[in-house]
Specification:
heterotrimer; A mainly alpha (194); B alpha+beta (323); C mainly alpha (136); B: 323 residues; alpha+beta; twelve-stranded mixed β-sheet; five-stranded antiparallel β-sheet; 5 helices; globular; C: 136 residues; mainly alpha; 7 helices
């Protein structure tokens, strides 16, 4: 959506214009749902939480002052509701990913012909591997990874969304990606057992 | 809320040829599930149910007219249904599917009792990884229900059963895949419990029908595709339910589905390349897989994690000449 | 600052970028029509009283039209995460075939299996009378 068009839409949403809000939902529903589903690891919960996100957004749009982007604002609502839901359900956060699986300086070996990033097709199998890797992570790492790598938010935007320093955003992003690297590497190098 | 099924529920994995012979221990199960299992063989009703399944493509919905008398069931279809004229009659020993359009009757192993028994077996086998809870359900076919929810450890629903607490009838069932997406459901739209059902409804006679069994079909397909005939010895309790060809791009794959009171098992044969490690990766932990190659044919067995699976796979491999 | 520079360099590395690409390329998650229909109802319930014209314009919008259509449907479908139409491996197809069979047996019980639904449906209803007329 063009900047001017979005601004006009937001203005109408502030006035609780239902039609405008419908367009707003059209623009963001898939992204929010995807984020929430990966955060809560449960489709039913995700559907429920995502509805709550948009209901809250509709209710509080009048208070949106435009100092942050509407995307930042919306994902802050989503993030908070995901955390609340996890607390309600008494889920203990995963601890996977707090320590990098790579030694200092170690990186993926590009001489391995199987690891050609441009040739690495995201087929059904690899999708499962990556999704599982994301599901294993702690909420803290997951939210940074999803907001940066999937939503293409800047470090500063993420810092604002999550109320954490930019340095913390970067270190969590590094740990999250390092975890996925090790998961993908394990998948590609593990031998058969038959 | 039940957080775990108690350890005493074990299903005998021994051979059984009918639902009635397998009486699982119900100790430790929620009361509503115990009721459903214990009443399963004595319910008597007529009803209309709608079945929805999603099979990696468009959703399919069918309406079925159900007549049930204890452990016998008859299924008819509405006149405007794509299955109009077909009749399915099942008792504890066999399932007969009458297809007037093809002038044949397909004789198969019974299926009705599977879902509840298998649920109980699954809860026993995966008791550490399952969470079971019971709460008030919705009004189904005009009757108040109790909802039995079976979930994995993350809380993703695996199955939801809406059970009538008065009769033990499962009025609605929803099944989910491992990421919580609904893969199918059935729901009774109307149901009428009876004291008596005319037993003649479960007898169908017609001259000239060709009798087809899954084994007949399997033999035809293995001959056509130049593959091996496969039999699982009766002692393991599995009966062949269907044989069909699935065709990815390239070489066809013959899939033979076997069912028992404790699980379902599929034996695949193909000349396409097959990677054991990829197969087990897709299995994701709750399914066992075994592969081997003999005479240019790749075999794969896929089934529930259990010692019975291992024994069946070992025996098949040996019988087919696998090393 | 030196540590942060090192972190920036690591984050900008090719291997890290390839992880970014994998995450970015994960399939989109689209809520169902039924979900959207429910949300629309809740939003309408939240909405302050509006001139009728605005609500009518809302109701005529294609997205809500889809939602209304969904409200009439018997069941809703959540779009699968990954299609297995082309590019399915033999292995994934085997597991999916087995798992479908298990899942559908849990749903359909004695009723038609999924393969029977495909194999034995006829485009027009069969006129052959019910077989049990012979019995009576």
């Amino acid at each position: 959506m063009e900047a001017g068009a979005e601004e006009a839409l937001i203005d109408r949403c502030r006035k609780q214009d239902v039609e405008a809000f419908g367009k707003f939902v059209d623009a963001y529903q898939a992204r929010v749902f995807g984020f929430v589903k990966r955060m809560v690891n449960n489709a039913d919960e995700a559907a429920d939480v995502t509805q709550e996100v948009f209901i809250r957004a509709y209710q509080s749009f009048a208070r949106f002052d435009g100092r942050s982007s509407v995307r930042t604002w919306l994902f802050r609502i989503a993030n908070n509701l995901c955390i609340d839901r996890s607390r309600q359900l008494g889920r203990t956060p995963n601890s996977v990913g707090l320590v990098s699986d790579f030694e200092d300086g170690e990186e993926m070996d590009f001489s391995d012909s199987r690891w050609q990033p441009e040739a690495l097709m995201l087929d059904a199998e690899l999708i499962q591997v990556v999704e599982s890797g994301i599901a294993e992570m702690s909420e803290k790492l997951k939210m940074v990874l999803l907001l940066h790598d999937r939503e293409e938010m800047s470090y500063e935007e993420i810092a604002e969304t999550l109320s954490i320093p930019v340095g913390t955003v970067k270190s969590r992003l590094f740990l999250a990606r390092a975890h996925l690297q090790s998961v993908v590497k394990r998948y590609m190098t593990e031998g058969g057992n038959d | 809320m039940f957080s775990r099924i108690l350890a005493s529920t074990i299903i005998a994995a021994s051979a059984a040829t009918s639902y009635g012979q397998q009486r699982p221990s119900l100790e430790g199960l929620p009361e509503i599930l115990r009721l459903a299992v214990s009443r399963a063989d004595s319910l008597r009703y007529t009803g209309v149910r709608v079945v929805n399944v999603r099979a990696r493509g468009p959703q399919r919905e069918t309406v079925e007219y159900i007549t049930r008398d204890g452990d016998r069931i008859r299924i008819d279809f509405p006149n405007d249904s794509a299955f109009s004229g077909q009749v399915i009659i099942e008792d504890p020993t066999e399932r007969r599917h009458y297809l007037p359009g093809q002038n044949e009757v397909r004789v198969l192993p019974p299926r009705r009792g599977e879902s509840l028994l298998r649920l109980v077996a699954s809860l026993a086998r995966f008791r550490q990884e399952r969470k079971v809870s019971v709460e008030n359900g919705s009004l189904i076919a005009g009757r108040l229900t109790r909802l039995l929810l079976v979930a994995d450890q993350r809380g993703n629903p695996l199955q939801k059963l809406y059970i009538d607490p008065t009769t033990g009838a499962v009025l609605k069932s929803e099944v989910y895949d491992f990421v919580g997406t609904s893969v199918g459901s059935y729901e009774f739209k109307s149901i009428e419990f009876k004291d008596k059902i005319d037993s003649r409804l479960f007898k169908v006679s017609r001259k000239g029908l060709r009798t087809v069994s899954p084994q007949t079909e399997a033999n035809e397909l293995t001959t056509k595709l130049n593959l091996r005939q496969i039999q699982i010895p009766r002692e393991f309790g599995f009966r062949l339910e269907s044989a069909r060809v699935i065709r990815p791009e390239g070489e066809p794959i013959l899939a033979q589905m076997f069912s028992s009171s404790t699980g379902r098992l599929t034996v695949f044969q193909t000349r396409a390349d097959l990677k054991s490690e990829r197969l087990s990766k897709f299995a994701r932990g709750e399914i066992s897989t075994r592969t081997w190659r003999v005479g240019g044919i790749n075999f794969a067995v896929v089934g529930p994690k259990s010692t019975n699976f291992d024994r069946v796979a070992d025996r098949l491999k040996r019988d087919l000449g696998g090393q | 600052m030196k540590i942060e520079n090192q972190l920036d360099e690591k984050l900008a590395s090719d291997s890290m970028k390839s992880i970014t690409k994998l995450v970015k390329d994960l399939p989109e998650e689209i809520p169902s029509m039924n979900w959207r229909s429910q949300l629309n109802e809740r939003i309408l319930a939240e909405a302050k009283p509006k001139p009728k014209l605005d609500l009518q314009r809302w109701l005529l919008r294609p997205a809500l039209g889809l939602g209304l259509a969904a409200a009439l449907a018997v069941a809703f479908v959540i779009r699968p995460v990954a299609s297995d139409s082309t590019g399915s491996t033999v292995e994934s197809l085997m597991i999916a075939t087995h798992q479908d069979d298990v899942n559908y047996a849990s749903v359909t019980g004695a009723g038609l299996s999924v393969s029977e639904m495909k194999d034995y449906s006829s485009p027009t209803p069969v006129s052959d009378p019910l077989l049990d007329l012979d019995v009576f």
